[in-house]
Amino acid sequence: MTKWRRFLLWATLLLLVALTLFSIYGAFIGAQRAQAFFGSVPLAVYWFGLVLLLMAGFQAFRRLRTAPSSFCIHAGCIAILIGGLWGSGTGRDLQNRWLGRSIIPDGRMALVNGQQDNRVYLEQDANEIRELPFTLGLDRFRMEYYPGKLHVQDNQSQQVWTFPVEPNAVYDLGKPHGHVHIAGVYENFKINIEEDPNGGRQVQAYDDPGPGSNPALAIQTHSDPTPQYVFERHSGHATAGSPLVFQYRKGMISDYISEIKILQQGEVVAQKDIEVNHPLYYGGYHFYQSSYGQDSRSGQMYTVLSVVPYTGLYWVYLGYILLCGGVAWHCWFFSIRRILKQEVQHGS
Amino acid sequence: MAVKMTHQGLLIYITMGAYLAALVLTLARRPRAGLGLFGLGFLAGLAAFIYRWVQVAHWPMQNLFEVFVTLGMLCFPISILCRRYLRIGGQAGDMLIGIILLFPAGFVFKAEPQQLPPALQSPLFAPHVAVYMISYVLMAKATLCAAAQLLQRKPKDNLLPPESATYVMVCLGFPFLTLGLILGSWWGKLAWGNYWGWDPKELWSLVSWLAYLGYFHFRYMFGTRKANLNSVWAVTGMVFIVITLLWVNLSKLFPGLHNYATS
Cβ neighbours of residue A175 under 8 Å, at least 6 residues apart? Predict the structure, then answer.
């Protein structure tokens, strides 16, 4: 092996060990600091060095050019590194400066129901705002939940039943308790008290659509058909004379959905329900369901969308395909076969 | 630690018992009986996996309990594949790996079913975790072969020598490790907007991958002349895999987006 090839191999090994150590260090300092570390100037020199090394490998080792699997593996690594550098914060800054582009860095948008906006608050500095060349409008933000659970415990026999919460469901607790009927499911339980003409009071339970959350169930048992209310916030509802204790656990959130439309010059040009794992792609940007909140003054729910430009992304995806295909081909169809053939020949 | 007095727990204990009996019989030079019990243990493990799948109504690899049940179940088919088609022995070691993997599932990790949070509701969830599980068992077997090399064990019959067996196992597992890393990156892009978020889990997964990449380059440079050092590379890779799978999920040192796996 020539000195130059030996040097390249040792340099590769050294850079791999270095990247391993950098990654271990990055794992201990947290994602934000790791991102800053790997995007710093010394590491930028490292990344360029790695790309140059891979390119030099193509020149020095004929096999990397002629064997398809080896070519794919190493070309895939180059493509991933180029895509990563091109799509990095520094890469985008350079594109804006040298190529006259106006790529907005990673940021977030917050929208309440019915609001239209094109302002993006940057991740690197939340006080810095950039404007998209089009507008996003939120028709509605909603959350979906898994079915809740009603737990019933008999304090005498210690038997426990768990039932999924479904409106109007009837479940049998066996003798002597009979059945339990879920008469109503409330997201924000409130009561309305009205004086009636006879001097009495009428109490009416209802689900308040306004801001707030007070999950509750209305249940009726075999022994007492009067509706009883079980609140999620107050565990262990019991009635005097009955050994049964009820507990309600609302289902966890199963999905967050932002019904978004894209407007350009007042016209709707795209529409999508953005959910986690189902982003919207438009105009060189990806919009992701990131978070949500409630405005403390108006009580309105708002959605928070992440805005990410897709610069360099296709280079990275190309690199992934080449790397994955190359590795599988090389390992499964070349290396293993070669070893088994060698061992057979050695044995014979 | 607690014994699970449930149908799920019973299936896991049957699997462990069968693997343990298989190991004892194999060490007592009754390999065919051991293999039979190993297969029975696999069926019980498969039943445990399917039971959990039906119970949670989604792919059962959300938390460490489910992951370790799956890992324990995979030991038998991988052992058979290696023996039949790749001439790699070490069946007793595979049984031992199975027992070790099922122990935390049977006695340590909580088994309460959990609903899938929105981020895990993706068609990439199953393939991403599954290929990682397959690669982990393959690399664990590679580690056993590497240990056999370091202990200077001679292969039986017409089986591959330990150094070659280690290389073949790493070749078998590395594409799965690569695919797992790439699928995770793709999924991260769809879920969070970043194909690489420098999350501790991602970085440790990269470290595991780099360790085996280094193994390949080192072996390319020195061949089998430095067989013991090759084996040390392979064992180091497994150490990083254990850190990625356990330490990152269980330790408060590494808060990040991959907290779903904590039991």
Answer: none
